[in-house]
């Protein structure tokens, strides 16, 4: 247990440097400034999500079979390769640029698939069995706060490094950076982060847990475990409802998160502020675990998902006017809601899942989320193209408007069905107990 005691600390290091990436505040404009259009960038996100869809669950099952540490080491290595693609991508390279960007998205998807579920499963199983749920709440809260700190630092640095005017002010005339070199600096910073992730994952220890298969038959065992996990989720409709409601909320907010830098431009925010916006999001993330923990202790998971739905609708509607400068407020609100949603689902799924299939179930959840995100990205890109005759800023505002009604209708139906199902289950349980008492 002495070696395992360091895993939670290593998990925090891994999740901070893996997730708080310096190019996030300028993600959309990074690809657009390389020579892609906004709808091409959105389609690249579909490639990314499709890759995760194909590999998320098999990788989670392999994590439960061959070990979570090996998957985290693989995720870190793939992270290095995806950064090298962006560093070498030619500006305005036409089909070559698009091919390299597609490769980048595939490598990124593979990396995410390997890390998803394996990192949390390894950390969770490293905690003492006594009072594990409470210990996980504390560790998850600590990880989210450190991740927020990482966002504050990397968002500011990433946007600062991306702006050659800002960087060159601190450099002598003989060492002035070109626009192309400056635009690669945030990517180079993430490449350094990938080395830190690799070091953290290599120093982890694999917890002893019930293996679901043997190393010699990993592929067959992974498929069997995947099928078993899906059957387990289907046999627990409440958990399936949590995942479906969560992916519906996640997909629309995450899609906005990938194009938010384009939105910031239409509300007249200069590029150099994008990092400070990311830092504000990270700062707000410090307060989310405390609030989320209180709400989750007081209300059921379904009620918390209903609260997250209300927050999401408020934020999406407030985006539509694209108020100059003040349009930043609903954007920050949506990012905070996404953190609240993540805390709620992570807590609920860990409490409901046994150790032997924990990484697989989390990967099924990740697969569902990324499938939803990919399909929404495809629909949103088609929506943008339908307004192709309009200026880019007007087309984006129109797409933000038309995405709200379908989301409101779908999420309302899902919440009603989940509530009705939960009420029926309570009624059946009470009837059964009354019958036994008689």
Q: Could you characterize the architecture of this molecule?
A:
The chain has 18 helices and no strands. It is mainly alpha-helical and 438 residues long. The protein has one domain (4-205, 218-437): Growth Hormone, Chain: A, CATH 1.20.1250.
**CATH-level-2 architecture:** Up-down Bundle
What global shape is seen? Answer: globular
Q: Whole-number radius of gyration?
A: 22 Å
Largest sheet: none
Number of spatially distinct domains: 1
Q: Please write the CATH class name.
A: Mainly Alpha
CATH superfamily: MFS general substrate transporter like domains
Structural class: mainly alpha
User: What is the beta-strand fraction?
Assistant: under 5%
Helix percentage:
over 70%
Number of strands: 0
Give the helix tally. 18
Summarize model confidence as the mean pLDDT: 84
Query: What is the distance, rounded to the nearest whole angstrom, between the alpha carbons of the first and last residues?
Result: 49 Å
CATH topology: Growth Hormone, Chain: A
Runs in which pLDDT lies below 50 for 5 or more consecutive residues are: 210-216
Q: Can you tag this structure with a few keywords?
A:
438 residues, mainly alpha, Growth Hormone, Chain: A
Which helices and strands occur, and which strands form pairs?
Layout: H1 7-19, H2 27-34, H3 38-66, H4 68-88, H5 95-115, H6 118-125, H7 132-162, H8 164-168, H9 179-202, H10 218-234, H11 237-266, H12 274-285, H13 288-298, H14 301-319, H15 328-352, H16 358-386, H17 392-402, H18 404-437
């Amino acid at each position: 247990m002495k070696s395992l005691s360091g895993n939670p600390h290593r998990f925090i290091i891994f999740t901070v440097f893996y997730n708080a990436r310096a190019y996030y505040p300028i993600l959309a404009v990074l690809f657009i400034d390389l020579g892609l259009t906004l709808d091409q960038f959105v389609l690249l996100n579909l490639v990314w999500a499709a890759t995760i869809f194909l590999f998320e669950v098999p990788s989670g099952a392999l994590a439960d079979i061959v070990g979570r540490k090996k998957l985290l080491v693989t995720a870190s290595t793939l992270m290095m390769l995806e950064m090298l693609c962006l560093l070498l991508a030619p500006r305005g390279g036409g089909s070559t640029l698009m091919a390299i960007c597609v490769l980048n998205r595939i490598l990124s998807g593979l990396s995410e698939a390997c890390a998803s579920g394996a990192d949390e499963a390894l950390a969770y199983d490293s905690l003492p069995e006594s009072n594990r749920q409470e210990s996980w709440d504390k560790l998850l809260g600590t990880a989210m706060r450190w991740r927020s700190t990482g966002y504050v630092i990397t968002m500011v640095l990433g946007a600062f490094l991306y702006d050659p005017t800002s960087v060159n002010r601190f450099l002598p005339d003989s060492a002035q950076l070109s626009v192309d070199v400056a635009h690669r600096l945030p990517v180079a910073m993430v490449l350094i982060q990938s080395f830190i992730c690799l070091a953290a994952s290599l120093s982890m220890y694999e917890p002893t847990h019930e293996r679901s298969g043997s190393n010699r038959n990993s592929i067959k065992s992974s498929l069997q475990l995947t099928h078993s996990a899906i059957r387990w989720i289907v046999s627990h409709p409440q958990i399936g409802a949590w995942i479906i409601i969560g992916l519906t909320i996640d997909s629309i907010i995450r899609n906005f998160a990938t194009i938010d830098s384009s939105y910031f431009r239409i509300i007249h925010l200069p590029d150099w502020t994008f990092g400070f916006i990311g830092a504000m999001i990270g700062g707000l993330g410090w307060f989310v675990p405390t609030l989320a923990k209180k709400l989750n202790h007081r209300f059921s998971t379904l009620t918390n998902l209903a609260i997250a739905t209300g927050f999401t609708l408020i934020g999406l509607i407030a985006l539509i006017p694209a108020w100059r400068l003040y349009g930043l407020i609903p954007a920050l609100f949506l990012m905070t809601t996404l953190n609240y949603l993540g805390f709620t689902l992570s807590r609920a799924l860990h409490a409901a899942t046994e150790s032997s299939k924990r990484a697989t179930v989390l990967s099924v959840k990740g697969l569902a989320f990324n499938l939803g995100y990919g399909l929404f990205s495809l629909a949103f890109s088609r929506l943008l193209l339908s307004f192709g005759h309009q200026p880019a800023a007007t087309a984006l505002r129109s797409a933000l408007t038309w995405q709200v009604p379908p989301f409101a209708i779908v999420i309302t139906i899902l919440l009603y069905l989940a509530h009705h199902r939960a009420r029926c289950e309570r009624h059946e349980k009470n009837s059964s107990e009354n019958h036994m008492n008689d």
